[in-house]
Protein backbone atom coordinates (compact mmCIF):
# COMPACT_ATOMS: atom_id res chain seq x y z
CA UNK A 1 0.00 0.00 0.00
CA UNK A 2 1.19 3.48 -0.86
CA UNK A 3 2.44 5.51 2.12
CA UNK A 4 1.22 9.10 2.58
CA UNK A 5 1.56 11.57 5.46
CA UNK A 6 -2.19 12.03 5.68
CA UNK A 7 -2.69 8.32 6.27
CA UNK A 8 -0.32 8.47 9.22
CA UNK A 9 -1.91 11.64 10.64
CA UNK A 10 -4.55 12.34 13.24
CA UNK A 11 -6.79 15.30 12.40
CA UNK A 12 -8.34 17.62 15.00
CA UNK A 13 -11.46 19.53 14.00
CA UNK A 14 -11.97 23.03 15.37
CA UNK A 15 -15.36 24.73 15.28
CA UNK A 16 -13.98 28.24 15.76
CA UNK A 17 -17.11 29.85 17.16
CA UNK A 18 -17.06 27.50 20.13
CA UNK A 19 -13.36 26.89 20.71
CA UNK A 20 -11.79 29.81 22.56
CA UNK A 21 -12.68 33.49 22.77
CA UNK A 22 -9.70 35.84 23.15
CA UNK A 23 -11.49 39.21 23.23
CA UNK A 24 -14.49 38.71 25.48
CA UNK A 25 -17.21 39.15 22.86
CA UNK A 26 -18.57 35.67 23.63
CA UNK A 27 -17.53 34.24 20.25
CA UNK A 28 -14.51 32.02 19.69
CA UNK A 29 -11.89 33.55 17.39
CA UNK A 30 -8.58 33.01 15.59
CA UNK A 31 -6.38 34.52 18.29
CA UNK A 32 -8.20 32.24 20.71
CA UNK A 33 -7.13 29.24 18.64
CA UNK A 34 -3.53 30.50 18.44
CA UNK A 35 -3.49 30.69 22.24
CA UNK A 36 -4.21 26.96 22.25
CA UNK A 37 -1.76 25.61 19.67
CA UNK A 38 0.47 24.26 22.42
CA UNK A 39 -2.52 22.40 23.80
CA UNK A 40 -2.95 20.77 20.36
CA UNK A 41 0.75 20.02 20.10
CA UNK A 42 0.71 18.40 23.53
CA UNK A 43 -2.25 16.27 22.52
CA UNK A 44 -0.15 15.17 19.56
CA UNK A 45 -2.44 15.78 16.60
CA UNK A 46 -0.84 16.36 13.20
CA UNK A 47 -3.46 18.31 11.29
CA UNK A 48 -6.04 20.91 12.25
CA UNK A 49 -9.23 21.23 10.20
CA UNK A 50 -10.79 24.63 10.70
CA UNK A 51 -14.52 24.84 10.12
CA UNK A 52 -15.25 27.99 8.04
CA UNK A 53 -13.65 31.26 9.16
CA UNK A 54 -14.55 33.23 6.05
CA UNK A 55 -16.71 36.35 5.86
CA UNK A 56 -20.28 35.28 6.45
CA UNK A 57 -23.60 36.65 7.69
CA UNK A 58 -23.76 33.50 9.84
CA UNK A 59 -27.10 32.15 8.82
CA UNK A 60 -25.49 28.70 9.17
CA UNK A 61 -22.49 29.65 11.33
CA UNK A 62 -20.06 30.31 8.51
CA UNK A 63 -21.26 27.60 6.10
CA UNK A 64 -22.81 30.51 4.20
CA UNK A 65 -19.86 32.44 2.78
CA UNK A 66 -20.12 35.98 1.43
CA UNK A 67 -16.41 36.37 0.60
CA UNK A 68 -14.17 33.32 0.17
CA UNK A 69 -11.01 35.41 0.46
CA UNK A 70 -11.81 37.39 3.61
CA UNK A 71 -11.95 36.49 7.29
CA UNK A 72 -15.14 36.84 9.34
CA UNK A 73 -14.76 40.01 11.41
CA UNK A 74 -15.99 38.23 14.57
CA UNK A 75 -13.10 35.79 14.21
CA UNK A 76 -10.39 38.40 13.59
CA UNK A 77 -8.32 39.45 10.60
CA UNK A 78 -6.28 37.88 7.81
CA UNK A 79 -3.19 38.73 9.86
CA UNK A 80 -4.62 36.69 12.75
CA UNK A 81 -5.21 33.81 10.39
CA UNK A 82 -1.64 34.04 9.07
CA UNK A 83 -0.34 34.04 12.62
CA UNK A 84 -2.31 30.89 13.37
CA UNK A 85 -0.99 29.14 10.26
CA UNK A 86 2.58 30.09 11.21
CA UNK A 87 2.10 28.95 14.81
CA UNK A 88 0.87 25.54 13.62
CA UNK A 89 3.61 25.15 11.02
CA UNK A 90 6.30 26.15 13.52
CA UNK A 91 5.18 23.26 15.69
CA UNK A 92 5.10 20.80 12.80
CA UNK A 93 1.33 20.75 12.50
CA UNK A 94 -0.66 21.29 9.32
CA UNK A 95 -3.83 23.25 8.57
CA UNK A 96 -6.70 22.29 6.33
CA UNK A 97 -9.49 24.70 5.50
CA UNK A 98 -13.19 24.12 4.91
CA UNK A 99 -14.20 24.56 1.27
CA UNK A 100 -17.91 25.37 0.96
CA UNK A 101 -18.66 25.59 -2.74
CA UNK A 102 -21.91 23.72 -3.24
CA UNK A 103 -23.46 27.05 -2.25
CA UNK A 104 -22.43 30.55 -1.26
CA UNK A 105 -24.21 33.09 0.90
CA UNK A 106 -26.96 35.15 -0.73
CA UNK A 107 -24.84 38.11 0.41
CA UNK A 108 -21.92 37.05 -1.80
CA UNK A 109 -21.30 39.65 -4.51
CA UNK A 110 -21.90 36.96 -7.16
CA UNK A 111 -25.44 36.46 -5.90
CA UNK A 112 -26.03 40.16 -5.37
CA UNK A 113 -25.18 40.63 -9.05
CA UNK A 114 -27.02 37.50 -10.21
CA UNK A 115 -30.35 38.64 -8.85
CA UNK A 116 -30.17 42.03 -10.54
CA UNK A 117 -31.40 40.73 -13.91
CA UNK A 118 -31.70 37.63 -16.04
CA UNK A 119 -28.90 38.80 -18.30
CA UNK A 120 -26.46 39.75 -15.55
CA UNK A 121 -23.06 38.11 -16.21
CA UNK A 122 -23.30 36.38 -12.81
CA UNK A 123 -26.86 35.09 -13.31
CA UNK A 124 -25.59 31.71 -14.42
CA UNK A 125 -23.39 31.27 -11.34
CA UNK A 126 -26.57 30.07 -9.61
CA UNK A 127 -29.48 27.78 -10.48
CA UNK A 128 -32.52 29.77 -11.59
CA UNK A 129 -35.79 28.39 -12.98
CA UNK A 130 -39.22 29.79 -13.75
CA UNK A 131 -42.11 28.57 -11.59
CA UNK A 132 -44.38 25.71 -12.71
CA UNK A 133 -48.16 26.16 -12.54
CA UNK A 134 -47.78 29.02 -10.08
CA UNK A 135 -45.55 26.96 -7.79
CA UNK A 136 -41.89 26.11 -7.30
CA UNK A 137 -39.97 24.65 -10.31
CA UNK A 138 -39.92 21.20 -8.65
CA UNK A 139 -40.97 19.58 -5.38
CA UNK A 140 -37.58 19.21 -3.68
CA UNK A 141 -37.31 20.04 -0.02
CA UNK A 142 -34.42 21.87 1.55
CA UNK A 143 -32.20 20.01 4.00
CA UNK A 144 -33.21 22.64 6.54
CA UNK A 145 -36.97 22.25 5.94
CA UNK A 146 -39.49 23.76 3.51
CA UNK A 147 -39.05 24.11 -0.24
CA UNK A 148 -35.59 24.11 -1.78
CA UNK A 149 -36.64 27.06 -3.96
CA UNK A 150 -36.99 30.75 -3.17
CA UNK A 151 -38.94 33.11 -5.37
CA UNK A 152 -37.28 36.30 -6.53
CA UNK A 153 -40.01 38.84 -7.44
CA UNK A 154 -37.58 41.14 -9.23
CA UNK A 155 -36.79 38.66 -12.02
CA UNK A 156 -39.84 36.44 -11.56
CA UNK A 157 -37.77 33.26 -11.16
CA UNK A 158 -36.83 30.91 -8.36
CA UNK A 159 -33.32 29.99 -7.22
CA UNK A 160 -32.33 26.62 -5.79
CA UNK A 161 -31.04 26.31 -2.21
CA UNK A 162 -30.50 22.79 -0.87
CA UNK A 163 -29.85 24.34 2.57
CA UNK A 164 -31.24 27.65 3.89
CA UNK A 165 -32.59 30.28 1.54
CA UNK A 166 -29.52 32.32 2.43
CA UNK A 167 -27.38 29.53 0.90
CA UNK A 168 -28.11 29.58 -2.87
CA UNK A 169 -26.60 26.61 -4.74
CA UNK A 170 -23.79 27.42 -7.13
CA UNK A 171 -24.16 26.27 -10.73
CA UNK A 172 -21.29 23.89 -11.42
CA UNK A 173 -22.48 23.41 -15.00
CA UNK A 174 -21.01 26.87 -15.63
CA UNK A 175 -17.27 26.58 -16.47
CA UNK A 176 -16.68 30.19 -15.43
CA UNK A 177 -17.92 29.46 -11.91
CA UNK A 178 -15.74 26.38 -11.72
CA UNK A 179 -12.68 28.36 -12.76
CA UNK A 180 -13.41 31.00 -10.08
CA UNK A 181 -13.53 28.24 -7.46
CA UNK A 182 -10.24 26.73 -8.63
CA UNK A 183 -8.54 30.14 -8.64
CA UNK A 184 -9.78 30.78 -5.12
CA UNK A 185 -8.50 27.38 -3.97
CA UNK A 186 -5.06 28.09 -5.46
CA UNK A 187 -5.01 31.45 -3.69
CA UNK A 188 -5.36 29.66 -0.35
CA UNK A 189 -2.91 26.92 -1.32
CA UNK A 190 -0.36 29.58 -2.21
CA UNK A 191 -0.83 31.02 1.26
CA UNK A 192 0.53 27.71 2.49
CA UNK A 193 -2.44 25.66 3.64
CA UNK A 194 -2.21 21.90 3.65
CA UNK A 195 -5.52 20.89 2.18
CA UNK A 196 -9.29 21.12 2.19
CA UNK A 197 -12.29 19.52 3.80
CA UNK A 198 -14.99 19.91 1.17
CA UNK A 199 -18.52 20.61 2.34
CA UNK A 200 -21.27 18.41 0.77
CA UNK A 201 -19.04 18.19 -2.26
CA UNK A 202 -20.97 15.26 -3.74
CA UNK A 203 -24.00 17.59 -4.16
CA UNK A 204 -22.44 19.83 -6.81
CA UNK A 205 -23.65 17.94 -9.91
CA UNK A 206 -27.42 17.94 -10.32
CA UNK A 207 -29.35 15.70 -12.72
CA UNK A 208 -30.33 17.88 -15.71
CA UNK A 209 -34.01 18.75 -15.73
CA UNK A 210 -34.05 18.63 -11.91
CA UNK A 211 -36.80 15.96 -11.84
CA UNK A 212 -39.44 15.83 -9.09
CA UNK A 213 -38.91 13.46 -6.18
CA UNK A 214 -41.57 11.25 -4.59
CA UNK A 215 -43.55 13.01 -1.85
CA UNK A 216 -44.13 10.89 1.27
CA UNK A 217 -47.71 10.77 2.50
CA UNK A 218 -48.54 13.69 4.77
CA UNK A 219 -45.65 15.79 3.46
CA UNK A 220 -45.58 18.73 1.05
CA UNK A 221 -42.10 18.36 -0.42
CA UNK A 222 -40.01 15.42 -1.57
CA UNK A 223 -36.40 14.50 -1.05
CA UNK A 224 -34.60 15.32 -4.27
CA UNK A 225 -31.42 13.70 -3.01
CA UNK A 226 -31.26 11.00 -5.69
CA UNK A 227 -31.06 13.83 -8.24
CA UNK A 228 -28.27 15.77 -6.60
CA UNK A 229 -26.09 13.34 -4.64
CA UNK A 230 -23.24 11.77 -6.61
CA UNK A 231 -24.77 13.30 -9.73
CA UNK A 232 -23.87 12.60 -13.38
CA UNK A 233 -20.85 14.95 -13.66
CA UNK A 234 -19.49 14.67 -10.11
CA UNK A 235 -16.41 12.61 -10.95
CA UNK A 236 -15.65 14.81 -13.93
CA UNK A 237 -15.85 17.95 -11.75
CA UNK A 238 -13.68 16.54 -8.98
CA UNK A 239 -11.12 15.26 -11.44
CA UNK A 240 -11.04 18.66 -13.08
CA UNK A 241 -10.67 20.35 -9.69
CA UNK A 242 -7.78 18.05 -8.87
CA UNK A 243 -6.12 18.87 -12.17
CA UNK A 244 -6.77 22.60 -12.16
CA UNK A 245 -6.36 23.45 -8.47
CA UNK A 246 -4.68 20.71 -6.44
CA UNK A 247 -2.09 19.14 -8.72
CA UNK A 248 1.43 20.09 -7.71
CA UNK A 249 0.59 20.76 -4.06
CA UNK A 250 1.37 18.17 -1.39
CA UNK A 251 -1.97 18.49 0.35
CA UNK A 252 -4.78 16.31 1.69
CA UNK A 253 -8.42 16.44 0.66
CA UNK A 254 -11.46 14.99 2.33
CA UNK A 255 -14.89 15.26 0.76
CA UNK A 256 -17.96 15.41 2.95
CA UNK A 257 -20.42 13.10 1.20
CA UNK A 258 -23.84 12.34 2.61
CA UNK A 259 -25.32 9.39 0.74
CA UNK A 260 -22.05 8.02 -0.62
CA UNK A 261 -21.74 4.23 -0.77
CA UNK A 262 -18.63 2.07 -0.89
CA UNK A 263 -18.66 1.65 -4.66
CA UNK A 264 -18.81 5.41 -5.27
CA UNK A 265 -16.27 6.06 -2.52
CA UNK A 266 -13.79 3.75 -4.24
CA UNK A 267 -14.03 5.94 -7.31
CA UNK A 268 -13.66 9.16 -5.34
CA UNK A 269 -10.60 7.97 -3.42
CA UNK A 270 -8.74 5.67 -5.84
CA UNK A 271 -5.47 7.60 -6.27
CA UNK A 272 -5.18 6.61 -9.90
CA UNK A 273 -8.35 8.61 -10.67
CA UNK A 274 -6.98 11.87 -9.20
CA UNK A 275 -10.12 13.04 -7.40
CA UNK A 276 -9.92 13.11 -3.57
CA UNK A 277 -7.83 11.43 -0.86
CA UNK A 278 -10.72 10.36 1.34
CA UNK A 279 -14.39 10.98 2.00
CA UNK A 280 -16.62 11.35 5.04
CA UNK A 281 -19.35 8.77 4.60
CA UNK A 282 -22.50 8.86 6.73
CA UNK A 283 -23.89 5.34 6.76
CA UNK A 284 -22.82 4.67 10.36
CA UNK A 285 -24.38 7.99 11.40
CA UNK A 286 -27.74 6.72 10.19
CA UNK A 287 -27.85 3.40 12.06
CA UNK A 288 -29.72 4.88 15.03
CA UNK A 289 -32.34 6.61 12.89
CA UNK A 290 -35.77 5.17 12.09
CA UNK A 291 -37.62 5.36 8.75
CA UNK A 292 -38.47 9.04 9.27
CA UNK A 293 -34.89 10.21 9.33
CA UNK A 294 -32.51 11.68 11.81
CA UNK A 295 -35.04 12.96 14.36
CA UNK A 296 -36.70 9.56 14.49
CA UNK A 297 -34.36 8.15 17.14
CA UNK A 298 -33.92 4.39 17.52
CA UNK A 299 -31.36 2.39 19.52
CA UNK A 300 -28.20 1.28 17.75
CA UNK A 301 -27.65 -2.44 17.22
CA UNK A 302 -23.96 -3.26 17.55
CA UNK A 303 -24.20 -5.89 14.81
CA UNK A 304 -25.44 -3.18 12.42
CA UNK A 305 -22.40 -1.05 13.27
CA UNK A 306 -20.08 -4.00 12.74
CA UNK A 307 -21.60 -4.91 9.40
CA UNK A 308 -21.34 -1.34 8.24
CA UNK A 309 -17.84 -0.50 9.43
CA UNK A 310 -16.56 -3.85 8.14
CA UNK A 311 -18.06 -3.22 4.73
CA UNK A 312 -16.14 0.08 4.51
CA UNK A 313 -12.91 -1.33 5.95
CA UNK A 314 -12.88 -4.19 3.47
CA UNK A 315 -14.30 -2.22 0.57
CA UNK A 316 -11.67 0.52 0.48
CA UNK A 317 -8.71 -1.61 1.57
CA UNK A 318 -5.94 -1.40 -1.01
CA UNK A 319 -7.98 0.94 -3.24
CA UNK A 320 -8.96 4.15 -1.45
CA UNK A 321 -8.83 5.39 2.11
CA UNK A 322 -11.28 5.79 5.01
CA UNK A 323 -11.76 8.79 7.25
CA UNK A 324 -12.71 7.65 10.74
CA UNK A 325 -15.05 9.66 12.93
CA UNK A 326 -17.81 9.20 15.47
CA UNK A 327 -18.79 12.85 15.86
CA UNK A 328 -18.27 16.33 14.41
CA UNK A 329 -19.99 19.74 14.51
CA UNK A 330 -23.14 18.28 12.91
CA UNK A 331 -23.49 15.22 15.12
CA UNK A 332 -24.21 14.59 18.78
CA UNK A 333 -21.30 13.90 21.13
CA UNK A 334 -19.98 10.37 20.62
CA UNK A 335 -19.82 9.42 24.30
CA UNK A 336 -23.50 10.32 24.74
CA UNK A 337 -24.54 8.59 21.55
CA UNK A 338 -22.49 5.39 21.48
CA UNK A 339 -21.17 5.14 25.03
CA UNK A 340 -22.49 6.05 28.48
CA UNK A 341 -22.15 9.70 29.47
CA UNK A 342 -23.12 8.93 33.08
CA UNK A 343 -21.51 6.26 35.25
CA UNK A 344 -19.10 4.98 32.61
CA UNK A 345 -18.30 8.22 30.81
CA UNK A 346 -14.54 7.92 31.13
CA UNK A 347 -14.27 4.23 30.28
CA UNK A 348 -16.71 4.41 27.40
CA UNK A 349 -15.08 7.50 25.86
CA UNK A 350 -11.72 5.70 25.95
CA UNK A 351 -13.24 2.53 24.54
CA UNK A 352 -14.80 4.38 21.61
CA UNK A 353 -11.51 6.14 20.90
CA UNK A 354 -9.68 2.81 20.92
CA UNK A 355 -12.23 1.26 18.61
CA UNK A 356 -11.90 4.15 16.14
CA UNK A 357 -8.16 4.81 16.22
CA UNK A 358 -7.28 1.16 15.64
CA UNK A 359 -9.31 0.94 12.41
CA UNK A 360 -7.74 1.46 8.99
CA UNK A 361 -8.09 5.10 7.98
CA UNK A 362 -7.33 8.61 9.19
CA UNK A 363 -8.90 9.36 12.60
CA UNK A 364 -10.63 12.70 13.21
CA UNK A 365 -11.02 14.10 16.72
CA UNK A 366 -13.74 16.69 17.16
CA UNK A 367 -12.91 19.41 19.70
CA UNK A 368 -13.86 18.37 23.22
CA UNK A 369 -14.04 14.68 22.34
CA UNK A 370 -10.58 14.27 23.90
CA UNK A 371 -11.93 15.36 27.29
CA UNK A 372 -15.18 13.43 26.98
CA UNK A 373 -17.54 16.36 26.47
CA UNK A 374 -21.18 15.26 26.42
CA UNK A 375 -24.52 16.21 24.89
CA UNK A 376 -26.46 19.02 26.54
CA UNK A 377 -30.10 19.37 27.61
CA UNK A 378 -31.25 22.99 27.60
CA UNK A 379 -34.73 23.40 29.11
CA UNK A 380 -35.92 25.90 26.57
CA UNK A 381 -35.80 25.99 22.77
CA UNK A 382 -34.76 29.64 23.25
CA UNK A 383 -31.31 28.46 24.32
CA UNK A 384 -30.69 26.70 21.00
CA UNK A 385 -28.94 28.47 18.13
CA UNK A 386 -28.75 26.01 15.23
CA UNK A 387 -30.87 26.84 12.17
CA UNK A 388 -31.60 23.16 11.57
CA UNK A 389 -32.94 22.68 15.11
CA UNK A 390 -34.92 25.93 15.09
CA UNK A 391 -36.50 25.28 11.68
CA UNK A 392 -37.42 21.72 12.66
CA UNK A 393 -39.00 22.89 15.94
CA UNK A 394 -40.95 25.60 14.13
CA UNK A 395 -42.27 23.13 11.58
CA UNK A 396 -43.11 20.30 13.99
CA UNK A 397 -44.28 22.13 17.12
CA UNK A 398 -45.46 25.55 16.00
CA UNK A 399 -46.91 24.64 12.59
CA UNK A 400 -47.93 20.99 13.05
CA UNK A 401 -48.81 20.98 16.75
CA UNK A 402 -46.53 18.06 17.68
CA UNK A 403 -45.75 17.41 21.35
CA UNK A 404 -42.94 19.82 22.31
CA UNK A 405 -41.56 17.42 24.93
CA UNK A 406 -41.12 14.69 22.36
CA UNK A 407 -39.47 17.09 19.95
CA UNK A 408 -37.12 18.33 22.68
CA UNK A 409 -36.13 14.72 23.40
CA UNK A 410 -35.11 14.28 19.77
CA UNK A 411 -33.08 17.50 19.96
CA UNK A 412 -31.35 16.19 23.09
CA UNK A 413 -30.44 13.03 21.21
CA UNK A 414 -29.54 14.37 17.76
CA UNK A 415 -29.38 18.18 17.66
CA UNK A 416 -26.23 19.73 16.22
CA UNK A 417 -25.91 22.16 19.15
CA UNK A 418 -24.88 19.19 21.33
CA UNK A 419 -21.50 19.51 19.64
CA UNK A 420 -21.43 23.29 19.52
CA UNK A 421 -21.59 24.31 23.18
CA UNK A 422 -18.41 26.17 24.13
CA UNK A 423 -15.25 24.17 24.75
CA UNK A 424 -14.77 23.46 28.45
CA UNK A 425 -11.30 24.68 29.36
CA UNK A 426 -11.57 24.87 33.17
CA UNK A 427 -14.06 25.19 36.01
CA UNK A 428 -14.14 29.00 36.08
CA UNK A 429 -17.13 31.02 34.87
CA UNK A 430 -18.23 30.01 31.34
CA UNK A 431 -15.73 27.15 31.47
CA UNK A 432 -12.90 29.57 30.69
CA UNK A 433 -14.22 29.89 27.13
CA UNK A 434 -14.98 33.62 27.37
CA UNK A 435 -14.91 36.47 29.86
CA UNK A 436 -18.08 37.80 28.21
CA UNK A 437 -21.52 36.37 27.51
CA UNK A 438 -21.09 33.18 25.42
CA UNK A 439 -23.03 33.06 22.12
CA UNK A 440 -24.47 29.77 23.30
CA UNK A 441 -24.71 28.56 26.87
CA UNK A 442 -21.98 26.40 28.29
CA UNK A 443 -22.85 22.80 29.22
CA UNK A 444 -23.41 22.94 33.01
CA UNK A 445 -21.19 19.89 33.53
CA UNK A 446 -18.07 22.00 32.84
CA UNK A 447 -17.20 22.09 36.56
CA UNK A 448 -16.22 18.43 36.41
CA UNK A 449 -15.59 17.94 32.69
CA UNK A 450 -12.89 20.35 31.50
CA UNK A 451 -9.42 20.37 29.94
CA UNK A 452 -7.63 21.58 33.07
CA UNK A 453 -8.95 18.66 35.09
CA UNK A 454 -8.17 16.26 32.26
CA UNK A 455 -4.59 17.40 31.84
CA UNK A 456 -3.93 17.21 35.58
CA UNK A 457 -5.22 13.64 35.83
CA UNK A 458 -2.84 11.03 34.41
CA UNK A 459 -5.76 8.60 33.96
CA UNK A 460 -7.95 11.00 32.02
CA UNK A 461 -9.47 10.55 28.60
CA UNK A 462 -7.10 13.28 27.39
CA UNK A 463 -3.97 11.36 28.35
CA UNK A 464 -5.43 8.21 26.87
CA UNK A 465 -5.82 10.03 23.51
CA UNK A 466 -2.19 11.17 23.74
CA UNK A 467 -1.15 7.57 24.13
CA UNK A 468 -3.32 6.37 21.26
CA UNK A 469 -1.85 9.02 18.96
CA UNK A 470 1.71 8.12 19.96
CA UNK A 471 1.06 4.44 19.28
CA UNK A 472 0.03 5.30 15.74
CA UNK A 473 3.48 6.81 15.15
CA UNK A 474 5.24 3.68 16.38
CA UNK A 475 3.29 0.83 14.84
CA UNK A 476 2.72 0.87 11.07
CA UNK A 477 0.15 -1.93 11.47
CA UNK A 478 -2.20 0.63 13.07
CA UNK A 479 -2.04 2.76 9.94
CA UNK A 480 -1.63 0.28 7.12
CA UNK A 481 -2.84 -3.09 8.37
CA UNK A 482 -5.71 -5.07 6.82
CA UNK A 483 -8.85 -5.41 8.89
CA UNK A 484 -10.65 -8.60 9.81
CA UNK A 485 -13.82 -8.71 11.93
CA UNK A 486 -14.16 -11.52 14.45
CA UNK A 487 -17.34 -12.51 16.34
CA UNK A 488 -19.70 -10.79 13.85
CA UNK A 489 -22.83 -11.90 15.76
CA UNK A 490 -21.90 -10.62 19.22
CA UNK A 491 -24.22 -7.77 20.32
CA UNK A 492 -21.90 -6.47 23.04
CA UNK A 493 -18.31 -7.02 21.99
CA UNK A 494 -16.77 -5.54 18.85
CA UNK A 495 -13.46 -7.28 18.16
CA UNK A 496 -11.20 -7.26 15.13
CA UNK A 497 -7.74 -8.14 13.90
CA UNK A 498 -5.35 -6.00 11.90
CA UNK A 499 -2.36 -7.37 10.04
CA UNK A 500 0.55 -5.84 8.17
CA UNK A 501 3.52 -7.92 7.01
CA UNK A 502 4.32 -10.04 10.06
CA UNK A 503 2.68 -7.75 12.62
CA UNK A 504 -0.83 -8.22 13.98
CA UNK A 505 -3.18 -6.45 16.37
CA UNK A 506 -6.12 -7.83 18.26
CA UNK A 507 -8.60 -5.11 19.26
CA UNK A 508 -11.33 -6.04 21.75
CA UNK A 509 -13.95 -3.47 22.75
CA UNK A 510 -16.98 -3.96 24.98
CA UNK A 511 -19.79 -1.66 23.84
CA UNK A 512 -21.94 -2.48 26.87
CA UNK A 513 -22.12 -1.59 30.56
CA UNK A 514 -22.08 -5.29 31.51
CA UNK A 515 -19.31 -7.69 32.37
CA UNK A 516 -19.09 -9.87 29.29
CA UNK A 517 -17.03 -12.90 28.36
CA UNK A 518 -14.76 -12.78 25.35
CA UNK A 519 -13.32 -15.85 23.74
CA UNK A 520 -11.00 -15.70 20.78
CA UNK A 521 -12.44 -17.98 18.06
CA UNK A 522 -10.28 -21.04 17.46
CA UNK A 523 -9.81 -20.17 13.80
CA UNK A 524 -8.53 -16.64 14.48
CA UNK A 525 -4.84 -16.69 13.66
CA UNK A 526 -3.29 -14.58 16.38
CA UNK A 527 -0.64 -15.00 19.06
CA UNK A 528 -0.18 -12.09 21.42
CA UNK A 529 3.26 -10.82 22.38
CA UNK A 530 2.52 -7.58 24.18
CA UNK A 531 -0.35 -5.53 25.52
CA UNK A 532 -0.45 -2.15 23.76
CA UNK A 533 -3.18 -0.14 25.44
CA UNK A 534 -6.25 -0.69 27.59
CA UNK A 535 -8.71 1.59 29.35
CA UNK A 536 -8.52 -0.18 32.73
CA UNK A 537 -4.77 0.11 33.02
CA UNK A 538 -2.18 -2.57 32.38
CA UNK A 539 -3.18 -6.14 31.58
CA UNK A 540 -1.14 -9.26 30.92
CA UNK A 541 -0.26 -10.07 27.30
CA UNK A 542 -1.22 -13.72 27.73
CA UNK A 543 -4.83 -12.97 28.69
CA UNK A 544 -6.23 -12.72 25.19
CA UNK A 545 -7.83 -16.08 24.44
CA UNK A 546 -10.43 -15.96 27.18
CA UNK A 547 -11.25 -12.97 29.33
CA UNK A 548 -14.18 -11.38 31.14
CA UNK A 549 -14.40 -7.80 29.96
CA UNK A 550 -15.38 -5.03 32.36
CA UNK A 551 -18.04 -2.45 31.37
CA UNK A 552 -16.88 -0.65 28.21
CA UNK A 553 -13.47 -2.24 28.47
CA UNK A 554 -11.05 -1.93 25.56
CA UNK A 555 -7.85 -3.87 25.06
CA UNK A 556 -5.35 -3.92 22.24
CA UNK A 557 -2.80 -6.72 21.94
CA UNK A 558 0.09 -6.80 19.53
CA UNK A 559 1.48 -10.06 18.24
CA UNK A 560 1.80 -12.37 15.29
C1 LIG B 1 -22.43 20.32 6.00
C2 LIG B 1 -21.85 21.11 7.13
O1 LIG B 1 -21.02 20.29 7.90
C3 LIG B 1 -23.01 21.68 7.91
O2 LIG B 1 -22.62 22.24 9.13
C4 LIG B 1 -23.71 22.67 7.02
O3 LIG B 1 -24.88 23.12 7.66
C5 LIG B 1 -24.09 22.06 5.68
N1 LIG B 1 -23.06 21.22 5.11
C6 LIG B 1 -24.38 23.15 4.68
O4 LIG B 1 -23.19 23.83 4.37
From TrEMBL:
Catalysed reactions listed for this entry: Hydrolysis of (1->6)-alpha-D-glucosidic linkages in some oligosaccharides produced from starch and glycogen by alpha-amylase, and in isomaltose
Protein's name according to its UniProt entry: oligo-1,6-glucosidase
Any Pfam family hit: SusG_C
Record-listed E.C. numbers: 3.2.1.10
Species this chain originates from: Lentibacillus persicus
UniProt keyword annotation of Cytoplasm present: yes
Assigned GO CC terms: cytoplasm
Entry's Gene Ontology BP terms: oligosaccharide catabolic process
PANTHER family (alphabetical): ALPHA-AMYLASE FAMILY MEMBER, OLIGO-1,6-GLUCOSIDASE 1
Subcellular location: Cytoplasm
Glycosyl hydrolase family 13 catalytic domain location: 13-420
Family, per entry: Belongs to the glycosyl hydrolase 13 family.
Gene Ontology molecular function terms on file: alpha-amylase activity; oligo-1,6-glucosidase activity
Amino acid sequence: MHHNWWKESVVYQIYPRSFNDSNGDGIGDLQGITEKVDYLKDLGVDVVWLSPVYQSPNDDNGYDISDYQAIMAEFGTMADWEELLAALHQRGMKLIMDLVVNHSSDEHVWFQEAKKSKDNPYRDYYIWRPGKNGREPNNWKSNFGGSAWEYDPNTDEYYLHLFSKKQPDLNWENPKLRQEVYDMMKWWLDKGIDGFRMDVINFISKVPGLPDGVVKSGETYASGSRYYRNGPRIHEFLHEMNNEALAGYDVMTVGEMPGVDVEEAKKYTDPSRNELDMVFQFEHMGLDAGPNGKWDVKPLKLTDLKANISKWQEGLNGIGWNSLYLNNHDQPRMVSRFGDDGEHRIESAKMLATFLHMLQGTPYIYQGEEIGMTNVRFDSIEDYRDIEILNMYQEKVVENGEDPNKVMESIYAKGRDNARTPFQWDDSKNAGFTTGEPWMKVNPNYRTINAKQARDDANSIYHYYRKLIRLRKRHPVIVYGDYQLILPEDEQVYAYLRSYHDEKLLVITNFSGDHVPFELPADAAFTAEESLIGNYGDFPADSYTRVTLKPYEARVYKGK
